Amino acid sequence: MLTQPRLCKSAARASLPPPEPVDAGSGDPPLTHVTLVWRGGGQEDWLRFGKPVAERILDRRTRIESYAPGQVFALVRWASNDYGTVGSTLTIAQAAGFGEPFTTLPQVDPGAQILLSVRSWPKVRQVFALIDAIEDVGIDPCDVAPDHWHHVHNRLAGGMQVRSYSPARHRDWLRRRKLQS
């Protein structure tokens, strides 16, 4: 059975052919496509971290990065108007595999599992600082335990202090992941 990926509105406007359909039985994993738009001063989307398996440049301001199932990425969206910032969000998500549940997100096709989501620039900056702290101890944020991102999301939503992600906790996560596979 062939499934045709849906493109986001910005990609459809570029009038380029959509990504190739993925045959669910072919052994090729379905990809999650993230559309990034850069309109300086108006809309700026970027990835704070992530390791895409493919990238497609539509034009000078739009590109699509693709992720295999299980990969984690952090999408930052910022928008402004003549009066200043009107919105900023950071979403840490995990690409879903074929048949796995996912949440639809703007600019993410078909969607992903949300691990963390914050709105407003102060909260986005706070998560940036947490990501920086993780990188400072030598851990790639893409490899952090998904449970930690859930913890950060819940603590920030409750206005509570976030526990740091230590190398010891990361070692425990890697052991658990190895046992699960």
What does this structure look like?
- With 181 residues, this protein is of the alpha+beta class.
- The protein has 4 helices and 10 strands.
- The chain has helices at residues 9-13, 121-136, 146-157, 167-180, and strands at 2-3, 22-23, 32-39, 43-49, 54-59, 62-67, 72-81, 84-95, 103-105, 108-119.
- The strands form 2 sheets. A 5-stranded antiparallel barrel has the order 3-4-7-8-10. A two-stranded antiparallel sheet has the order 1-2.
- A hairpin with a 2-residue loop joins strand 5 and strand 6 (62-67).
- The protein is globular and about 50 Å long.
- Residues 1-25 have low confidence and may be disordered.
Strand content: 35-45%
Uncertain stretches of 5 or more adjacent residues: 1-25
Rg, nearest Å: 17 Å
Structural class assignment: alpha+beta
> Into which percent range does the helicity of residues fall?
25-40%
The N- to C-terminal Cα distance equals: 27 Å
Shape: globular
The ordered string of helix (H) and strand (E) elements is: EHEEEEEEEEEHHH
Keywords:
single chain; five-stranded antiparallel beta barrel; two-stranded antiparallel ribbon; 4 helices; 10 strands; disordered N terminus
Give the SSE layout:
Layout (H helix, E strand, L loop, with lengths): L1 E2 L5 H5 L8 E2 L8 E8 L3 E7 L4 E6 L2 E6 L4 E10 L2 E12 L7 E3 L2 E12 L1 H16 L9 H12 L9 H14 L1
Antiparallel strand pairs: 1-2, 3-4, 3-6, 3-10, 4-7, 5-6, 7-8, 8-10, 9-10
